[in-house]
Amino acid sequence: MPSWIKPQLTKLVDQPPDGSEWLHELKFDGYRMHARLARGAVRLLTRTALDWTHKYPAIAAAVASLPARQAYLDGELCGVRPDGTTSFSLQPLPPIAAKIAQDLRFMRTLLRRRLAASGRS
């Protein structure tokens, strides 16, 4: 597995492309973050390959607990306002990191169920 994968970045356009073959996703206002899992070792990497694992140990622990030997996850580390919107100006503080870790544990449960349902548990 590569130690770091350069992320594809967004590009500003006047309008979204047409056609059923296009997928769209919401843009969250936060830090682009990669979580690299290799045989139990986790690294949380920024889009420029800075290692931020030490800043978010709860997230690293949640990634380490995923039922996989290796994985490379691409996501957004966000500060979340009480109304559920994200804000870049909100630093992802430990309570937010704990919430992200909780969400990862939920994802782990879903992944285990899906693997079990497909006979690959």
Write a brief caption for the model.
This protein has 121 residues and is an alpha+beta fold. It contains two helices and four strands, in the order ββαββα.
- Please estimate the helix content: 25-40%
Terminal CA distance: 22 Å
Q: For the report, how would you describe the main beta sheet? A: 4 strands, antiparallel
Q: Widest sheet: strand order?
A: 2-1-3-4
Taking pLDDT < 50 over at least 5 consecutive residues as the criterion, the unreliable ranges are none
SSE layout:
Blueprint: E1 30-38, E2 41-46, H1 57-64, E3 70-80, E4 86-87, H2 94-117
Antiparallel strand pairs: 1-2, 1-3, 3-4
Structure, explained:
The protein is an alpha+beta fold. It has 2 helices and 4 strands, in the order ββαββα. It has helices at 57-64, 94-117, and strands at residues 30-38, 41-46, 70-80, 86-87. A 4-stranded antiparallel β-sheet has the order 2-1-3-4, covered by helices on one side. Helix 1 runs parallel beside helix 2. The model has no long low-confidence stretch (mean pLDDT 80).
